[in-house]
Amino acid sequence: MTRTTRAALLLAATALTPALLLSTPASAAVAATTVSATASTPVDQMSDDDVRVAISRILADPASGKAVLREANEALDGTIADQRAFLETGYRLAQAEDDRVAITRILADPKSGKAVIREASRALDGTMDDQRAFLETGYRLAQGEDDRVAALRILADPKSGPALRAAASAALDGTLEELRYFIAVGQYQVH
Questions:
Q1: pLDDT computed for residue 26 by the predictor
Q2: Using CA atoms in the order 14, 77, 4, 88, what is the torsion angle rounded to 10 degrees?
Q3: Residue 138 vs residues 19, 28, 68, 177, 178: alpha-carbon distances, Å
Q4: Would you tell me how many other CB atoms lie within 10 Å of the CB of residue 49?
Q5: pLDDT value at position 50?
Q6: Which residues of 27-45 are buried (b: 16+ CB within 10 A; e: fewer)?
Q7: Is the distance from CB of 73 to CB of 3 less than 8 angstroms?
Q8: What is the average pLDDT value for the chain, to the nearest integer?
Q9: Which of these, 27, 49, 102, 158, has the minimum number of CB atoms within 10 Å of its CB?
Q10: Measured between alpha carbons, how far is 90 from 45 in angstroms, rounded to an integer?
Q11: What is the predicted pLDDT for the residue at 40?
Q12: Sequence-separated (6 or more) residues with CB below 8 Å from residue 183
């Protein structure tokens, strides 16, 4: 496949993605990270053009990692059989490689707390599905646990002033996002 053809497919997929997502059921949009959700038709029943468009949509997705991009481009350079194989199995394997890299980066981050390290390590020791689940929900929950511990330490610290304690208490009563904001930014803004 030539670069011009690939660019045209990528442009078409990018332009059609919002319309395709809005015309499909919500459950299909939620499962967009899996190959089966790339189209409502099984890969073996897709036309050659639909296969190329599905791969182009993956390439246009800003959430696609390096391994996914590498394998998708390699598939587009190959035969239609290569492209179908990518959609059937290669995409999932490349996504798993990207997931392992992302988890390894989280583990290498000196700001990662104990719960994040514990859960990231468990995910790496687990299956591809365990790793995907950690990145989709487990990381957020583990970070929430670490943030809760940090907020409790602020409450227990005799050096914390009344305003900081009040803000920490309010953050503990809020959502995980509010707690994360307090730990990352808000605690430094309290006077």
A1: 30
A2: -20
A3: 31, 22, 22, 14, 17
A4: 11
A5: 92
A6: ebeeebbebeebbeeebee
A7: no
A8: 83
A9: 158
A10: 18
A11: 65
A12: 147, 150, 151, 171
Three-class SS of 149-180: HHHHHHHHCCCCCHHHHHHHHHHHHCCHHHHH
Give the separation between CA 72 and CA 1, rounded to whole angstroms.
Answer: 12
Reported as a single tens digit per residue, the pLDDT across 81-138 is: 999 999 999 999 999 999 999 999 999 999 999 999 999 999 999 999 999 999 999 9
> Is 162 in contact with 189 (CB distance < 8 Å)?
no
The token duo for 110 is 């000196």
Chain-centroid distance, C-alpha 93:
15
Mean pLDDT of the 158-177 span: 94
- Give me the DSSP letters along the chain: --HHHHHHHHHHHHHHHHHHHHHS-HHHHHTTTSGGGG-SS-GGGS-HHHHHHHHHHHHH-TT--HHHHHHHHHHHHS-HHHHHHIIIIIHHHHHHHHHHHHHHHHHH-TT--HHHHHHHHHHHHS-HHHHHHIIIIIHHHHHHHHHHHHHHHHHH-TT--HHHHHHHHHHHHS-HHHHHHHHHTGGGT--
Are 51 and 38 within 8 A, CB to CB? no
Give the amino acid at 174.
G
